[in-house]
Amino acid sequence: MTLPIYVQGAWFAGAALFIFGLKGMSSPASARKGIVIAGYGMLIAIAATFLIPGLKNLALMAVALAVGGAAAWISGQKVKMTDMPQMVAIYNGMGGGAAAAIAAIEFARGDAHSTVTTILAVLGALIGAVSFTGSCVAWAKLQGVLKKAIRLPAQNAVNVLLALNAVGLGAAMVVMAPAQPELILFFFAVSLILGLIVTLPIGGADMPVVISLFNAFTGLAVGFEGYVLGNPALIIAGIVVGAAGTLLTQLMAKAMNRPLSNILFTPLVASGGGEAISGSMKEVGAIDAAAMMRYASKVIIVPGYGMAVAHAQHKVWEMTEILEEAGVEVKFAIHPVAGRMPGHMNVLLAEAGVPYDKIFDLEEINGEFGQADVALIIGANDVVNPSARTDKASPIYGMPILNADQAQNVIVIKRGKGTGYSGVENALFYTDNCRMLYGDAQPMTGEIIQHLKTMG
Amino acid sequence: MDGLLALYIFMLAAFTGYEIIAKVPVILHTPLMSGSNFIHGVVVVGSMIALGNADTVIEQAIGFFAVALGAANAAGGYVVTERMLGMFKKKEA
């Protein structure tokens, strides 16, 4: 089928705008413009598709666009920033599902394709289907619908068996093309179950990496189906995202010091491992904490997911402004995996009004803790645990951490004495220069603000 | 489509994606993941073509499903990315 030049031109323009947009999104100053540019690319590509001569089911198509688009648009407007990771997961899963469905239609039609085309259609279908069910599980876990990690006995063996099955069925579809309907159904069923079973045992802490991986998967699936349909715009967009997503996944896994193979095949065990910790936790009151920061010259705040859950970010920013007014230098230190996705904490702080030039990455700020009078840790735990540097027996050994322990004083706002997400004891809390401020992050920060105000 | 030509497109697109992400600050990783999520929402175009060529009721049903999912991917991905990026601002001088 040769397409009219205006359709091809529009798709070309769409692909170009996607790349321009993505490039724009790679710097904070131009990021907003970037997504808008990419948005225009999408509108142009969709509008042009309607103009393809001889296309059937146009009314059905318009209804589907309206239903899917509106539902996602509204839910996207409403979602809270803390819930963003699972929202990205579910939208991503839908893209994977769409790619798999395109392949399903191609198989159902049974048109003769070259072997290469069939192979790519099968691969795209497999990857897309895995991304679809896997992302749904990721959503359910982060949303709290699915509370526990479900591990089958001999989980890894089941995974491998299912994967081999899916690949075997896919190979059969290539060899026997055009495939029988039973084979097609069976292939999709096994692929969908594979995504489900692989994702179910993965814990919440590892989920961001998995979401990123599925994002890359969907990209690849879209790229492959783009080849099947002979549409370069789909190929380019899909493969760009596939490559970018793969790199992003690696960066995240590296930041957590959890090789991808570990995340997929071994759960993070909350073992009691690690050296015994000596010393005791020392409590401090809000008034003392306020005084320590008020008369400091430099304070570094380390926010964690606990701060976001307590919705304390607005209070924290209010406190920061008071301290700055009083001449204290305040910086925010963000661990790459703070929040539920890399960069998630930045989004939460940005929502509270914290300018991004006050927010620093691990590499940028780690040298500065030594000069800080106070490191204030709010709802973070594992990312400041010095055991990761020193204790080879600790499950988190080797994970890069923020060197908050090097500050003159450390104040930790924490709900209780429990361990962090990984279930590991934090040696920092027992050191001499560390004080614990027990309480919910939001009222506690409010109390500090009250005391700061009386200090003038 | 010419297989060899497609291979070149695959190669260049992969390189482009890799290069764009390689220099991105961590602060933008979440919006970028969401933004790239939006971009593969272009799958909706493929879904439309598939639905547009559908003949049987089953094909139409799957096609409808594909278009709705693709549209949701694109629309949702755009909204959440735009919302996140709209919040990033520099300190006013």
From TrEMBL, chain A:
<keyword id="KW-0472">Membrane</keyword>
<comment type="similarity">
    <text>Belongs to the PNT beta subunit family.</text>
</comment>
<feature type="transmembrane region" description="Helical">
    <location>
        <begin position="119"/>
        <end position="140"/>
    </location>
</feature>
<feature type="domain" description="NADP transhydrogenase beta-like">
    <location>
        <begin position="11"/>
        <end position="450"/>
    </location>
</feature>
<feature type="transmembrane region" description="Helical">
    <location>
        <begin position="34"/>
        <end position="52"/>
    </location>
</feature>
<keyword id="KW-1278">Translocase</keyword>
<keyword id="KW-0521">NADP</keyword>
<protein>
    <recommendedName>
        <fullName>NAD(P) transhydrogenase subunit beta</fullName>
        <ecNumber>7.1.1.1</ecNumber>
    </recommendedName>
</protein>
<feature type="transmembrane region" description="Helical">
    <location>
        <begin position="88"/>
        <end position="107"/>
    </location>
</feature>
<dbReference type="InterPro" id="IPR034300">
    <property type="entry name" value="PNTB-like"/>
</dbReference>
<dbReference type="GO" id="GO:0008750">
    <property type="term" value="F:proton-translocating NAD(P)+ transhydrogenase activity"/>
</dbReference>
<comment type="function">
    <text>The transhydrogenation between NADH and NADP is coupled to respiration and ATP hydrolysis and functions as a proton pump across the membrane.</text>
</comment>
<dbReference type="GO" id="GO:0005886">
    <property type="term" value="C:plasma membrane"/>
</dbReference>
<keyword id="KW-1003">Cell membrane</keyword>
<feature type="transmembrane region" description="Helical">
    <location>
        <begin position="160"/>
        <end position="177"/>
    </location>
</feature>
<keyword id="KW-0812">Transmembrane</keyword>
<feature type="transmembrane region" description="Helical">
    <location>
        <begin position="6"/>
        <end position="22"/>
    </location>
</feature>
<keyword id="KW-1133">Transmembrane helix</keyword>
<dbReference type="InterPro" id="IPR012136">
    <property type="entry name" value="NADH_DH_b"/>
</dbReference>
<keyword id="KW-0997">Cell inner membrane</keyword>
<dbReference type="InterPro" id="IPR029035">
    <property type="entry name" value="DHS-like_NAD/FAD-binding_dom"/>
</dbReference>
<dbReference type="Pfam" id="PF02233">
    <property type="entry name" value="PNTB"/>
</dbReference>
<dbReference type="GO" id="GO:0050661">
    <property type="term" value="F:NADP binding"/>
</dbReference>
<feature type="transmembrane region" description="Helical">
    <location>
        <begin position="58"/>
        <end position="76"/>
    </location>
</feature>
<feature type="transmembrane region" description="Helical">
    <location>
        <begin position="183"/>
        <end position="202"/>
    </location>
</feature>
<feature type="transmembrane region" description="Helical">
    <location>
        <begin position="234"/>
        <end position="253"/>
    </location>
</feature>
<keyword id="KW-0520">NAD</keyword>
